[in-house]
Amino acid sequence: MAKIARVPTALLPLTPAVFHILLALADRERHGYSIMHEVEARSENRIRLGPGTLYGSIKRMLADGLIEESEERPDPDLDDQRRRYYRLTTFGRRVAVAEAERLENLVGAARAKKLLIAR
Question: What does each C-alpha distance from 38 to 11, 15, 68, 110, 115 come to in angstroms?
Answer without folding.
Answer: 23, 17, 18, 27, 29
